[in-house]
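Before relying on records like the one below, remember that each one covers exactly one chain. Contacts with other chains, cofactors or solvent are not represented anywhere in the record.
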Amino acid sequence: MSVMSSESSAGAALPKGWQAFAAKPDETTAKAVAKVLQEEMNPSQADASMKLIAKTLAERSARERSKLSRLIASQLRGDIARGFVKAYARINTGHESKESMVEYFYAFGHLATSTLPGAKAPSTTPVGLDPLKLDPVKEHLAALSLIKDTDDSSIKRHRNNIVASYCAFGIQNVRPKPHMVPLLIDFFAGSTGGVTIETQRYLARELFPWLQKDPIPADPKILTALYHAALILPSWSFKPFAAQLKLDTIGDSEQARRLRALVGKTLTG
């Protein structure tokens, strides 16, 4: 029997509202699913339902999986959140790369359970996710930066994916949203090696709209970040952003000339 039916082959009922979410995935229907999982079930009771949700996600296209999983993930909390991450990871093995899984769920899992990167136990101060504030995201990234590559081989392999995960989850949930811009600048100004192109492009598309109102400053870090973000986008995707960038104040540094040339090539190409 299909996981889209009202019950699984083992008789476990899908959460109330899941059919509506599967048909029209958005914040409203995701909240309905999360509400049932959070308020009407304990972690053990929710496990079977989360496995069915996870299996449904795993059978969708990569783009759909990304959208649906992030919608649900952004609504869940605590033990239920941890259970969903584990269920999705188990079901999804072989469907998504390890890098994609880290980018989708690392920040969500650690913020929802108030567990700093590298910590052995959750913090005594819970992280509020509705809405998410910038400070916990910065705190988690600061904790990540203190972990040496020699201390944790998994961190060493996926450090950039973890940073991207916090950036993606932050831009989706931190309010006010522009507070995330400095973290996106940091991300693109540094190394993005190993981060999936889908996540890089998503973050680039989220960054540029917030930098079109005011003149771009002659800050080498900002100019480097914008150049890298522009490079990762297809020319047709970057062109509308390029047309709105105010570059008169960026100076004549190497970083400025490089960005100006890329913008010019995009607009005339």
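The longest helix spans residues 153-173.
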